[in-house]
Write a structure and sequence with these properties.
It is a single chain. The chain has a domain of 92 residues: Rossmann fold. The protein is 32% helix and 15% strand. It contains 9 helices and 8 strands. The longest helix has 13 residues.
């Protein structure tokens, strides 16, 4: 599990080796059977073909050299490699209407879907619909609960909001639209949906 963070996305019934560069994140991990190694994706401290499979969940945008990190995952893995990531070409998530800097940010930090095929060979790319009551605090987790984005505690858990800086104008506009009912009128088609494609993609080698 490369870029494992605090281990939130690790399978429970698999033998896992977690790789995480941040000592602070490692300290937040709950007790588990996973082996934890402090290292970056770009220089994995393992022999060739050490693992049956490799995964990287919502992490590749933090890597300093994405192509090298992917190559390292390929080097140490015998079988399938899986990424949960975001398609920077996606334009269907309403939050960008209030914070357009998110689009620019993703275009600059997220690999294009074509990059994965260039780095890894044939891959499958599948949408990952987000449930309306998602309990994970990533960026699109509150797509049907827009008032949550007005909460500083919610935004603090989203690295994208740290990265784009001043968001006061977008917050003011969103708050006004929620109060006036403009948001609900504009995005009325979302209210009855159970899940929504917000641009997240599961990329897997074949």
């Amino acid at each position: 599990n490369v870029g494992a963070g605090a281990g939130s996305y690790e399978p429970l019934h698999r033998r896992i080796t977690a790789v995480e560069p941040s000592a602070k994140m490692i300290a937040q991990r709950r007790p588990s059977a996973a082996t934890v190694v402090q290292a970056g994706a770009e220089d994995l401290p393992f022999e060739d073909k050490s693992f049956d499979a490799a995964m990287a969940v919502l992490t590749i945008h933090h890597w300093s050299d994405k192509e090298r990190g992917v190559a390292e995952m390929r080097r140490v893995t015998r079988g399938r490699i899986v990424f949960l990531t975001y398609d920077p070409a996606f334009r269907g998530f309403w939050l960008a209407d209030y914070f357009p800097a998110l689009v620019t940010l993703d275009e600059g930090q997220m690999p294009a879907m074509a990059d994965y095929a260039r780095w890894l060979g044939p891959v499958t790319v599948a949408p990952v619909p987000i449930p309306h009551d998602c309990t994970d605090g990533f960026l699109a987790g509150y797509w049907r609960r827009p008032a949550a984005y007005l909460d500083e505690r919610v935004r603090r858990a989203m690295s994208s909001f740290w990265a784009i800086g001043d968001v006061s104008e977008g917050l003011e506009k969103l708050g006004h639209d929620l109060e006036s009912g403009a948001w609900e009128r504009r995005y009325a088609d979302l209210v009855g949906l159970e899940t929504l494609d917000c641009g997240y993609r599961l990329v897997a080698t074949r």
